[in-house]
């Protein structure tokens, strides 16, 4: 899996994308703060943050009993490229074509 | 690289995206999905495509961020059921999309090549015209089906 693939996979989930976009607006946030308004449980938020961290999209900092998360916008650099964007675009569209072909008569 | 290039040649250098898929469907069926207007809408985008060389058509989707969601195209080649090619112009990017369908034992292999990406396109994308929010907006559209 390329770095771009893992970024797309990480950001392909709407909940994770919302978490990332919140962090990308700036500052550090605790898991507690991020759970408010996320619409999912705190363990689920922690799980999503772990995926974002594995993709290099966020970093964490432990302070006492709380972990503080912040965005790592530089991680998006591999995606800031037409070719990567279009590669992912066509993969998604061809998935849809295969769905369509399965629904079509011969 | 040992080849000597003028700066003009270098700036005109292009790259392409190639995706190949083996599909358990006959080539003629894949061809229908590629060239029939309502079917194209199902998998790609709303459109006014017609399988005629020279036909100008438009692909359109929901606008996001600073992008109007419109792609202007012109048919370059229609060779049923093997090859379909059209131009693709959007967001200042001019490229050519070519689909090639070849029969296989299990069905068909579809190859999609989009070529004509300028080698320095990364800079265009990072330019002032497409800021952070637009980029995320477009990214969201790309990954919506991921």
Estimate what percentage of residues of chain B fall within beta strands.
35-45%
Radius of gyration of chain B: 17 Å
Which stretches of chain A are low in confidence, meaning pLDDT under 50 for 5 or more residues running?
Answer: none
Share of helix among residues of chain A?
A: 55-70%
Give the helices and strands of chain A as they follow along the chain: HHEHHEEH
Structural class of chain B: alpha+beta
Spatial strand arrangement across the major sheet of chain B:
1-7-6-5-4-3-2
Helix content of chain B: 25-40%
Discrete helix count of chain B: 5
Q: Can you list the strand order of the major beta sheet of chain A? A: 1-3-2
Mean pLDDT of chain A: 85
Mean pLDDT of chain B: 77
Poorly predicted runs of chain B are 1-11, 121-136
Shape of chain B: globular
**What is the CA-CA span between the terminal residues of chain B?**
37 Å
Straight-line N-to-C gap of chain A = 34 Å
- Secondary-structure-based class of chain A equals alpha+beta
Strand element count of chain B: 7
Q: Based on the structure, what is the oligomeric state of the protein chains? A: heterodimer
Q: Can you characterise this structure?
A:
The complex is a heterodimer of chains A (106) and B (146). Chain A is an alpha+beta fold. Chain A has five helices and three strands, in the order ααβααββα. Chain A has a three-stranded antiparallel β-sheet with strand order 1-3-2. In chain A, a hairpin with a 2-residue loop joins strand 2 and strand 3. In chain A, helix 2 packs across helix 4. By secondary structure, chain B is an alpha+beta fold. Chain B has a seven-stranded antiparallel β-sheet. In chain B, strand 4 and strand 5 form a beta hairpin. In chain B, helix 2 packs across helix 3. Chains A and B meet through helix 1, helix 2 and helix 5 of A and strand 1, helix 2, helix 3, strand 7 and helix 4 of B.
Write the layout of secondary structure elements.
The complex is a heterodimer of chains A (106) and B (146).
Chain A: H1 3-11, H2 14-24, E1 29-30, H3 31-35, H4 42-54, E2 58-63, E3 66-71, H5 82-103
Antiparallel strand pairs in A: 1-3, 2-3
Helix pairs in contact in A: 2-4
Chain B: H1 7-11, E1 14-23, H2 27-35, H3 37-43, E2 46-47, E3 56-60, E4 70-79, E5 83-90, E6 93-104, E7 107-118, H4 121-126, H5 132-143
Antiparallel strand pairs in B: 1-7, 2-3, 3-4, 4-5, 5-6, 6-7
Helix pairs in contact in B: 2-3
């Amino acid at each position: 899996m390329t770095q771009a693939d893992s970024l797309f996979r990480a950001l392909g989930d709407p909940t994770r994308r919302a978490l990332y976009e919140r962090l990308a607006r700036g500052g550090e946030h605790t898991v507690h703060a991020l759970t408010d308004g996320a619409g999912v449980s705190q363990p689920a938020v922690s799980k999503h943050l772990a995926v974002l961290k594995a993709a290099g999209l966020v970093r964490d900092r432990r302070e006492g009993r709380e972990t503080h998360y912040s965005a790592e916008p530089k991680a998006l650099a591999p995606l800031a490229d037409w070719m990567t964007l279009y590669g992912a675009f066509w993969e998604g569209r061809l998935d849809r074509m295969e769905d369509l072909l399965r629904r079509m008569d011969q | 690289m040992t080849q000597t290039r003028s700066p003009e040649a270098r700036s005109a250098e292009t790259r392409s995206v190639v995706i190949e898929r083996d599909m358990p469907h006959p080539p003629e069926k894949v061809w229908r999905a590629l060239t029939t207007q309502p079917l194209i809408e199902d998998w790609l985008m709303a459109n006014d495509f017609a399988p005629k060389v020279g036909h100008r058509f438009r692909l359109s989707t929901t606008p996001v961020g600073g992008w109007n969601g419109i792609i202007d195209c012109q048919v370059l080649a229609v060779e049923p059921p093997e090859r379909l090619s059209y131009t693709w112009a959007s967001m200042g990017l001019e490229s050519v999309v070519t689909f090639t369908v070849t029969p296989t034992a299990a069905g068909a292999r579809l190859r999609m090549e989009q070529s004509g990406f300028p080698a320095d396109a990364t800079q265009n994308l990072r330019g002032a015209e497409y800021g952070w929010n637009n980029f995320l907006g477009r990214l969201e559209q790309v990954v919506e089906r991921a």
